């Protein structure tokens, strides 16, 4: 569902998203059929190693596509704006006790403070 929402947010037509979903379903069915074939051909252990290797290859391709140019993930911009001193002070401030003193121009209603 996350991929469908992302596809719709970037403006992909519903027919293309449906085509990708159909292709994914077909690949799942073919994977189940080919598993039985490879199990008879190579045995359970070799089939498992083959499937795991195949899966990891495509996982690495998918992860590398996240960081390719043109992707919405901009790590260079993130690390360029990252300042260690500011990050450390923000981290320390997140553990500071919260002040319970109400500002002068507020109305105290017990547990809630309205400004």
Distance between the termini: 41 Å
Summed over residues and divided by their number, the pLDDT gives a mean of 81
Largest sheet: spatial strand order: 1-2
What overall geometry do the principal axes of the alpha carbons give? Answer: elongated
Q: Tell how many strands the DSSP assignment holds.
A: 2
* Relative strand content: under 5%
> What is the count of DSSP helices, taking H or I runs of 4+ residues?
5
What key phrases describe this protein's structure?
mainly alpha; single chain; elongated
In short:
The protein is mainly α and 115 residues long. The protein has five helices and two strands; from the N terminus they run αααααββ. Strands 1-2 form a two-stranded antiparallel ribbon.
Structure commentary:
It is a single chain. This protein is mainly alpha-helical and 115 residues long. It has one domain. Helices cover 67% and strands 3% of the residues. It contains 5 helices and 2 strands; from the N terminus they run αααααββ. A two-stranded antiparallel sheet has the order 1-2. The chain is elongated and about 75 Å long. The two termini are 41 Å apart. The mean pLDDT is 81. Keywords: Ion transport, Membrane, Transmembrane, Transmembrane helix, Transport. This is Solute carrier family 40 member. One of its GO terms (molecular function) is iron ion transmembrane transporter activity. It is found in: Membrane. It is a multi-pass membrane protein.
List the helices and strands and how they pair.
Blueprint (H helix, E strand, L loop, with lengths): L1 H8 L4 H29 L1 H23 L8 H7 L2 H10 L13 E2 L4 E2 L1
Helix pairs in contact: 2-3
């Amino acid at each position: 569902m996350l991929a469908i929402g992302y596809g719709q947010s970037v403006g992909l037509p519903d027919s293309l998203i449906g085509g990708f979903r159909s292709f994914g379903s077909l690949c799942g069915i073919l994977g189940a059929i080919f598993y039985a074939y490879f199990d008879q051909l190579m045995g359970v252990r070799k089939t498992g190693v083959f499937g795991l290797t195949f899966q990891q290859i495509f996982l690495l391709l998918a992860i590398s596509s996240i960081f390719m140019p043109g992707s919405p993930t901009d790590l260079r911009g993130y690390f360029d704006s990252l300042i260690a001193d500011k990050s450390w002070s923000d981290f320390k401030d997140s553990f500071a006790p919260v002040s319970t003193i109400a500002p002068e121009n507020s109305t105290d209603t017990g547990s809630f403070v309205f400004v």
